[in-house]
Amino acid sequence: MSNIIQLLPDAIANQIAAGEVVQRPASALKELLENAVDAGATDIQVIVKDAGKQLVQVIDNGSGMSNVDARMSFERHATSKIKQSNDLFSIKTFGFRGEALASIAAVSQVELKTKSEDEETGTLIQIEGSELKKQEPIAAKNGTSVAMKNLFFNVPARRNFLKSNPVEMRHLVDEFQRVALSYPEISFSLMQNDMEIYRLNPGKLSQRIVGIFGKNYQDKLIPAEENTPHLKVKGYIGKPENAKKTRGEQFFFVNNRYIRSSYLHHAVHTAFEGLIQPDQHPFYVLFLEIDPSHIDINVHPTKTEIKFDDERTVYAVLRSSVKQALGAHHVVPSLDFSI
Ligand code: ADP
Ligand code: MG
Question: Of all atoms in ligand 1, which is nearest to the CA of residue 97?
Answer without folding.
Answer: 3
